[in-house]
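Input/output pair, single chain:
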Amino acid sequence: MSNAQPVTDQTWQDEVLGSDTPVLVDFWAEWCGPCRMVSPVVEEIAGEQAGQLKVVKINIDENPDTPRTYNVMSIPTLMVFAGGEERKRIVGARGKSQLLDEVSEFIA
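Output:
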């Protein structure tokens, strides 16, 4: 079972921008090796921080509009949204402790 919820261009507004809790968004694609390395880390964080931090994934191949809107040029790109705005951008693969350090300010 996946802890990180998939979002699409269509659900972006409600699921990410309309969220009451900070949202960690994983921009990824099936063919991306580093994305596959980051994915289990993102899933772990999603499970451990449930209720504190919402974690979602968006497949950039299936949903091209959202990455274009936010100028996502390379993947994996992780972004934190709070209050409907981008607050942090992390480009490239990170280990779990590094990633938690990067998003810790958004975890209640």
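The chain has a mean pLDDT of 96. The chain is about 30% helix and 25% strand.
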